Protein: Tripartite tricarboxylate transporter substrate binding protein
Organism: Achromobacter marplatensis
Amino acid sequence: MLQMNRWFGRAAAAMLVCAAGAPQALAAFPDRPVKLVVPYTPGGAADQLSRVLAERLSRELSQSVVVENKPGANTMIAATQVARAQPDGYTLFLASNASMVLNPMLYQKISYDAARDFRVLSVVAELPLVVVANNEVPATTWAQFVSYAKARPGKLNYASVGIGNPLQLATELLKTRTGIDIAHIPYNGSAPALSSLMANDTQLMVDVISTSLPLVKENKIKALAVTTAERLPVLPDVPTVAESGFPGFRAATWFGVAVPLATPAAEAKALQDAVARVMAQPDFRERFQTLGLVIQAPRDQAETDRYVAEDRERWGAVIRANQIKLD
């Protein structure tokens, strides 16, 4: 009997130790450095966002967050690496609408499934798009350009940085919404595309605000509209497409933070909350205005899921309507 009592005593003590240790184990996350995989080369707007985000997250998590640049294959190399990473909360991905929305619908051969392999924790920033035109086009607003194009069906061209790129898809979305007939001329990068616009080889382009803004300010091209829901502080006098007679229109690329889908809920929530605290910092929000990045208000998981689902629905309709497929 004495031996049995001792056994029960030891068992009870062990259970108390385990119970006391459980909260401490949970609170310890992360107990080693966290990696943020960025599918872009160093130096661009996305890379700058990721580095400042990693620095701020390091403070919030009391643990180093290290950026690893892994460019290539239109974000698919990095996305595949993270999809196959250990789902323990220590590998984050700088997700975007390219990796989470467009690539799975565009590419016939892709080595990850965005919906089944990832959980998007946060949409951190939107990269607004601006509709720009050649200076010789006799239109100063988007509504005027639509009228001008409708009077010349098939005679105008628009530039893009490649088939299936968000900029091309945004232009096709505009064409669908307005009913204009304008030919697509793809270029290998924004520099030659903008050069064609300035030379009047093309008359229209949808571009990210960061690359077109200097040319707009130098009066080398003109801004007709922005595709965001609200006007941009860097172009306060340029109306939105929605304001220009096409209510509800919205198109933007975005960057966020994702983890492998099997990441435990507690670790995912800790990361999500840390990202939300960074996004709420006023100086973090203001820092990226000059780059054309609009830091978003924090969303909970349900709101984030809905945002991504709506983005898939929006771009999926454009891709299907134009039967765009990439190898």
The two ends are 75 Å apart (CA to CA). The beta strands are 34-38, 65-69, 91-96, 118-133, 157-160, 183-186, 204-208, 222-226, 252-260, 294-295.
